[in-house]
Structures are given as structure tokens and as C-alpha cells.
Amino acid sequence: MNESKMKVLVTGGNGFLGSHIVRILLEEGYEVRAFILKGTPRDTIAGIACEIYEGNLLIPQDIENALEGCDYLIHTAAITDVWPTKNPFSWKINYELVKNIASIVQKKGIKKYIHVGTANSFGFGSPNEPGNEEKPFNSGKYGLDYITSKKAAQDFLLGEAKKENGLPVVIINPTFMIGENDTKPGPGEMIISVIKRKVPGYAAGGRSFASVKNVARACVNAIDKGQVGECYITGGTNLNYKQFFTLVAEKAGVKPPKVFVPTFLAVIFAALMQLISKMRNRKPLLSVTMAKMSGDGHYYSSLKAARDLDYVQTGLDKALAEALEWYKTHGYLD
To answer: I want to staple 216 with a disulfide (CB 3.0 to 4.6 A). Which of 15, 20, 283, 291 is the partner?
Structure first.
């Protein structure tokens, strides 16, 4: 319990990760101010004792006002969209905004700035030799602005941390998160598609699947335990897509996709879907970029976070069960 009642600003406080961070901070005795975009729903943090600041992160004065009286900042707000592949707004939010925030953090004398990045800023590996914080970035080949903008922001922040009177930043790098409060839905889009039998088969690759609550706990722990200028991958269970889709299907009581789809066929199929979606002016279920990514194994290790942040991986079953119940309760599976 934090007896000193330090105050924390959480950007994206009503979001998937941010809402869990807000709750854990309150449990730990921090005072919390949740920065939410004006006009967005507050359902995920309804009924809890946090202060709400409605504003726009693209307005620097709003950031300064929100940080007034705060000791720490946890910045979760980001553009995580993978469609369209080229998205100038990703750079505006994930990079330019971060540069502004870093300047304001220094100006306001914030004790520590916890920045949420992505594990994709480091090289992924195999299940036997998963990626870690030492592996060089290898996801630039996808040409996805979400990934490249987050990597550019990380490089900028780490550079600022190395300067004299450097930026007091700690970076948390989550993998694919699963759990409650996925209102968009973001990560849950793949889970919902499996349950609704919209996934025709499974690709060759896989991912590291993490509990959003575990990642949120790591963000809070980083306030006291995170080393300035360091990055921490917060992953979970490394599974290939066949394994993951089978697990989702078992939990939901549906049949899993059973057809293996080679990457080259997935790319052809995605190109056709993109063409049809363009004609219909809607987002494709699968893009060419995501088809290419699905052929790779985006596996990561969280040993550094476990060692330094007391990061605990509680297992995928609980997070997936909570996610499915949440999607069901909120009508996403209808």
C-alpha cells in the first residue's frame, strides 16, 4: 500500500489497458486522475473513486492541466489500428504526441513517466528462443505505421533518458493482451472471429498472449521498481495460431479452424478481401500485411520484467475466460 498518496495521471484511463491500471493504482492507495478523450464512454471505470479529466491529448495545455499536482504519469493512449497499413494519424499520436508529452513531463517535474510501447519494437523469436529486449527490431519489414511509429517513439524516449537531467522514462512493452474491458474490440477481434466461425483456417505463425491485468500490474510496479531508461517486455504464453484457436474454441464450445493456410495463400486471400472491402468501403477481415505477419512467430520472453518488476504471468486460461465472459455480457458474441 502506498501510504504517501502519490498522484498518478493515466492517459487512456477508460481504455482496455488503462482501465485496469486505474483500478490497480486505487487498490495500491494512489490517487488517480484518468485522462479520457472528451465524449468517450466511461463504462470501464464507472463507480470507482478516480478523478476524471476530459480533454484532448493533441492540445498541449490539456496535458499540462491534467498533470497539475501529479507525481507520476502512465501513458497508455495510442493508435493501435493495423488498418489502413499506412496511417498518418498513427504517427501523430504514437510519435509526435509522445515528443510533446516528454517535453511537458520535464517541464512539470514529473518523478517518473511510464510509457506503454509494444513488444514489436524488439525482435521476435521462436518458442525455444523467444525475442527479448536485446534482440534487434525486425518488424519494420511489414511497413505497418502502427509498429514503426511506436518504435520511433521508443527510440526517441530512450535517447531523451540518456541526456543530462534525462527524461525519467520507463517503457513497458506488452505482447498481445487478453481480458476484460476490450471495448473496441482490439485484440478481441481475432477471438470473436474464431467464435463466430469467420476464421477459415490457421496460419503458420503465432504470438505471445498476455493477461491485460498482468500487464497493468507491471505498469503500476514500474513506478517503484522500473529502472529509468529501461524497457520491459510483458508477455505471457507463447502459442502458435492452431493452439490458440483450439483453446478459444474449447472455451467457447465451438469447433476450431482445422485447415492449415500457407502464408502465400493467406496473402492471396487477403489481397482479394482488400479489393472487395475497398469496393464496399469497409475494413477487410484480413489485410495483406496481417497475412504476412501471421506467417511469423511473434514469440517473446518476459524474464527481465519478471526479475525487475515482479511481473507474474498467471496463465492464459483465466484471462481468456474473463475475456469471453466480458464479450458475451456486452453483446459482442450475439
So the answer is: 20
